Amino acid sequence: GAVVSQHPSRVICKSGTSVKIECRSLDFQATTMFWYRQFPKQSLMLMATSNEGSKATYEQGVEKDKFLINHASLTLSTLTVTSAHPEDSSFYICSATGPGQGETQYFGPGTRLLVL
Amino acid sequence: AQKVTQAQTEISVVEKEDVTLDCVYETRDTTYYLFWYKQPPSGELVFLIRRNSFDEQNEISGRYSWNFQKSTSSFNFTITASQVVDSAVYFCAPPADRGSTLGRLYFGRGTQLTVWP
Q: What is the pLDDT of residues A56-67, one digit of tens each?
């Protein structure tokens, strides 16, 4: 149990375009989802926390207009990187938790974004 | 303030050796959960263990064991008879303080474990 999927697994886009990444909990209700960013050989940096039906809470320094997060259902959260630039290239990972998961975050497989 | 210290940035061992990954954390909470995750080269984080701060008993799961010492804020992880497939980055993750969103975790830089055949 506790499976989280993420789509797409990798995406290449041109500078200036927007990219949407989906995170789905497949077998549990994800009342809370987290979005992280990870640079090569670095730790995970929490970008934002989203609770189902509420606005996301962004970490300090993360531009909310740049990284749009929607968590409209108990199984789906989306991260949209708007007007992507090469510096947005990174590994984006989502995680999810909810009732019955004991605060354990279950992670998706991640999305590698390359902006040309 | 730093929330977690994994002093070993990189560890290399030869297959079948035992290896211990250290974790020292900071928290203002009196009750909390602690977690260990594994990140293999594929990138996906794999949940290994959740430990409640109430429970200081050591835990063993197959070749994995954990030693939790609340008095010293340490939560060390030992792999017995390591295997090449254990090669990964391992993260110890304490929680954010209760004043913030429930379930937020802090990830340090992790420990890169390489197991050579």
A: 999 999 999 999
